[in-house]
Amino acid sequence: MPSYLSEPDAGRRIMARCDELGRISEPGEGVTRLYLSRQHKVAAETLVAWMTDAGMDARIDEVGNVIGRYHSQAGGGPYLVTGSHMDSVVNAGRYDGPLGVLTSLDCVAVLNARGRRFPFGIEVVAFGDEEGTRFRTTLAGSRAITGQHGDDLLNAKDENGLTMREAMAKFGLDPTRISAAAHRPEEVIGYVEIHIEQGPVLQAEDLPVGVVTAISGQTRAMVKLKGAANHAGTVPMGMRHDPMLAASEIALAVESIAASHQNTVGTVGVIKAEPGLINVIPGEVSLSLDLRSQVDDVRKAAYAQFAAAATEIAERRGVGIEIDVILDLESCPCAPAFINQLDSAVEKTGLRAIRLPSGAGHDGMAMSTLTDIGMIFVRCKDGVSHSPQESVTAQDVAAGAAVLLNFIENFQRNT
Ligand SMILES: [Zn+2]
Questions:
Q1: How many angstroms is it from 195 CA to the middle of ligand 1?
Q2: Alpha carbon of 34 to ligand 1 centroid (Å)
């Protein structure tokens, strides 16, 4: 059987393993590999074998993350942590998560084959739960590593009523030992992750990779508009208090407010009318707001504008309004020293370095409470993710791998 590195092209090597890992899935068109499932266990055991093969001490930790350690010249840590997640949404693609794990693994395999070690070790992590698909709780894997795993996670239930605590025991883990997964701050000197972009910017810029500046903060709110339900045929247009028309105007206000701020996006993903009948003017309409920006002050200013605009629209149309903020998550900036070093790694591979924010959440949000973080995005076709249509090219993956390897080889602490 040919050895892993007998394929000379890093992009092809990594994509072949993404395919192989992608086959460890519930049946169906796309990849479905949920936290603490049988597929998770098989994938974790596969990764342990691949990591061991690449010269790492590898194991499944106390919450089901896979941890592979490639030790320093002196034989231990501290460790530069790199990786991504191994769980998926339902009917996912092969690259969201695994690309980061397998690119990190590839870099270590290459360094190990060259006999190259550094004053620091490299720890490759495949987080067990990032998407939160099964228990509707995100980042359980990275939260355990950063010591933030608690009863809120353990008591969460899947759709069959099984708690995370029970699922852990079934998987073969001891839920009373979770705290042992936590890393001490002095063991870790940084976290860097490669991930598909999940957006269309790199494709539009015609670039294979980009350097992430921050994981955007988010405000989520539900807006309830109350009017007067009435007959669609009998009430003249000028005599209505129609909350659906207020909701429509508010949705358009979200568009113009978000567009008036840099790197800010606003979405109305839910509109629900009551009673929801074709011949009745709605009596009540609820709509959602999802507002994101990498700069918290900008997001807060945009939210204040939204709240003022929504209130004005409701008043003018004679409908009642209630706004309920359900999430207010601060932005998570990447460390300037990591951004600069990733920029130079991109340039050294002969590419133009561009910076962009991450509108989606990532394990870096939890890891940033422990250490400095950095992220590299790899172009994906049409920005599509969370779908079997997720697609990357071997050339772009090779570019991502070259950037990560260059970053590791030249990594300077405390710059
Ligand atoms: Zn992901």
A1: 7
A2: 13
- Distance from residue 137's CA to the centre of ligand 1 (Å): 14
CATH architecture designation of domain 217-329: 2-Layer Sandwich (3.30)
| Angstrom distance (rounded) from CA 225 to CA 272 | 10
* Distance from residue 276's CA to the centre of ligand 1 (Å): 36
CA of 192 from ligand 1 middle (Å) equals: 14
Looking at residue 17, its pLDDT comes to 98
The low-confidence residues of the chain, meaning pLDDT below 70, are: 1-2, 415
Whose tokens are 């705290």? That residue is 179
- Half-sphere exposure of residue 181: CA atoms within 13 angstroms, side-chain side: 29
Buried b / exposed e over 369-397, threshold 16 CB at 10 Å, is ebbbbbbbbbbbeebbbbeeebbbeeebb
- DSSP codes joined into one string, 91-127: TB-SSTTHHHHHHHHHHHHHHHHTT---SSEEEEEEE
- d(C-alpha 82, C-alpha 100), whole Å: 8
Ligand 1 center to 96 CA (angstroms): 5
Q: What is the pLDDT of residue 4?
A: 96
Q: Is the dihedral of CA 257, 259, 262, 267 positive or negative?
A: positive
Beta bridge partners, 273, equal 285
**Dihedral sign (CA 397, 400, 402, 405):** negative
Ligand 1 centroid, distance to 389 Cα (angstroms):
15
Percent helix / strand / coil, the chain, rounded to 5: 40, 25, 40
H or E stretch at 213: strand 209-215
pLDDT at residue 1, as a whole number: 53
| Confidence at residue 253, expressed as pLDDT on a 0 to 100 scale | 98
Q: How far is the CA of 262 from the centre of ligand 1 (A)?
A: 24
First CA to last CA across the chain, in angstroms? 44
Determine whether 90 is exposed, middle or buried from the number of CB atoms within 10 Å of its CB (0-12, 13-18, 19+): middle
Q: Which residue has the tokens 């490299």?
A: 122
- Rounded to the nearest angstrom, the distance between the alpha carbon of 261 and the centre of ligand 1 is 26
> 97 alpha carbon to ligand 1 midpoint, in Å?
5
Q: Which region holds residue 136: left if phi is over 0, alpha if psi is between -120 and 50, else beta?
A: left
What is the structure's pLDDT at 413?
84
Q: Where are the domains of the chain?
A: 4-215+332-409, 217-329
Look at the domain 4-215+332-409 and name its fold: Aminopeptidase (3.40.630)
